[in-house]
Structures are given as structure tokens and as C-alpha cells.
Amino acid sequence: MAEPFSRSERIPALEAVHLETLNQRLDQFDTQLHQELAAAKILAERRKQGEPIPDFDIRGKLYAMSEEIAPEARNGDTREMHELIHPQSGEISVDLAAGGGFITKSILEWTRAKTFAVDPSHEQLQILNTYCGGKAETILGSPDDATILDSLPRREIDFVTSFGGLHHVPDQRVMMENIATMLKNGGRFAAADVCGGTALARHFDTFVAEKSITSHTASWLTQDRLEQLIQGTPLALKHAETRPLTWVFDSERQMALFFKALHAYDLPDQEIIQDLQKALGTFQKDEKVHLNWPMLFFEIVRTET
């Protein structure tokens, strides 16, 4: 009778099976990415010819694919947001620049209450509606568009949040005024975004801006900038800090395809990997690839008036 495999023999065999299965899935995603990138490039060209097509109507499907490619890569983001928001069951909330529902879905699970999702992309809101099972109330519009207030209760919102989308908002001052109108006294605006002046902001301003098929422009936030934006409003900055998040991947190839979808790159995998390593830094831990992705987390409260 043959001796059973030792633990040291079994684990490499299991890892090999996992890697083979992962690569088969990534092969499928690679094919889909080529198709979606081709479709997005057509829309991007139409925009160049004058059609007013928002960025995320061009690459919304690609952005959503990133979650399918690496569904656990950003688990740390949701943990940090839960800690920041301290959501309570029954709280009414608004997710600004909600995108495909990355944070919205978690909010619904945390609060089991009415949740509004605001985004200027029709494509993104359709994706969000499917992703969240139709449980969020979607509002088409930019966070700095005063007309979104027509679809929201005023002075009744417990918390407003956003993750990674505020730098796309053209008039952040008007956005803050809108938030002040939404929140009840003591309500909070708890959000996270890329901090201006950091390596991550420079990465967006250079490589992403040059290589994404839609380019990239941003109005980055800092603590000083937040203070300026809320001057003269009934909002007060409670705290702001940069937290050293990492995004976690099973392999460098998974990381490359994730960013090919997230940032709409029509680039070789190795070029994406090399840029991320140089600009932000990666490291190996627990047989995973960790990418440094620090974010500015802040909480603003509405004071009594």
C-alpha cells in the first residue's frame, strides 16, 4: 500500500491546481477585456468628435469587470470604510459617485435601510442596480448638481459617503453645500479618496492620464483643501488621515488584468505590472501580491444650526 502524501507534498500540488484554475479564468477575462476595450475605444473616439459621453458611460462595463477579475482585492477598503462610517442599523444614507456599487452594496448590508446611490453615469447606475439587487434608490447626476436634491430628503440623511470618486467632481464646493443640505444635525460625511501630493496622485496624473483610453483628470483632496471647501457651511472637519491600504491579488497577472479593466488600459500586462511596482510598490505576503494603495480617510459632521 502506498504511503499517503505528506503535507509538504500536498500543498504544492493544491497550489498548482489553484494557479491553473486561476489562469484559465484569467484567459477568459483577457478575451472579454479585448472585446470591451474595443467597444470603449469606439465610444472614446465618438467623444473626441464632439459627442458628450461621460467617462464612465465609456468604460463602465470595464470598471465593473475589475471586480469580477479580482473580487477579493479590495476587501481592505470595505473594512476601513466600515470602521470610518460606524454604520448603524436603520440609518438612511447617500453614496456619492457610487459607480458600480462597490460601497453601496456593503452599506445596504450594514444598515438594512434606505440607501441612495448618486452617479453621473447611466451605465454605472445600471450596473449598480443589478449588483445591489435593485435595493438602492439610484439618482442620475453629479454630486455637485443641485438638482439631485430634488430626489433626496433634506436634513434627514444620517450619513453621506463615497469611496474613490470625489476627485471626479468638478465643483467640490457645491458638492459640500449639497451634502450640508442632505444631512440632519449631527449627520456625518465619511469618505475616502486619493490624497493630493502623494505618489498615488502622481501615478494618476502621469501614467493613468497618459495610458487610459479616456485619459484622467482630477481635483485631489487634502486636509487643507477639505477645510477650505467647508468654510462658511454648517460642516466641520472632525478628522482626516492617510491610511496605508493595500490591494491584494493572487498573482501579478491578475493584478494586471484588474487594472486593465479598472483604468481602461489597452496595454501589455508587463507594462502595467512594471509601472505599478515602480510608482506604488508591491510586496509578497502569504503567497499573495500586495499593492500599496494609501487613501485619505476623513469625517465631516453637520453642526447644529
What would you say this structure looks like, in words?
The chain is α/β, with parallel strands linked by helices and 305 residues long. It has a single domain (27-302), classed as Rossmann fold (3-Layer(aba) Sandwich). It is 46% helix and 20% strand. It has helices at 7-48, 55-69, 75-85, 104-111, 122-131, 172-182, 199-211, 223-230, 252-262, 269-279; strands at residues 93-96, 115-119, 137-140, 157-163, 183-193, 235-243, 246-249, 282-285, 288-292, 295-302. The strands form 2 sheets. A 7-stranded mixed β-sheet has the order 3-2-1-4-5-10-6, sandwiched between helices. It has a 3-stranded antiparallel β-sheet with strand order 7-9-8. Strand 8 and strand 9 (288-292) form a beta hairpin. The radius of gyration is 21 Å and the shape is globular. The termini are far apart. Mean pLDDT is 93; it is low at 1-14.
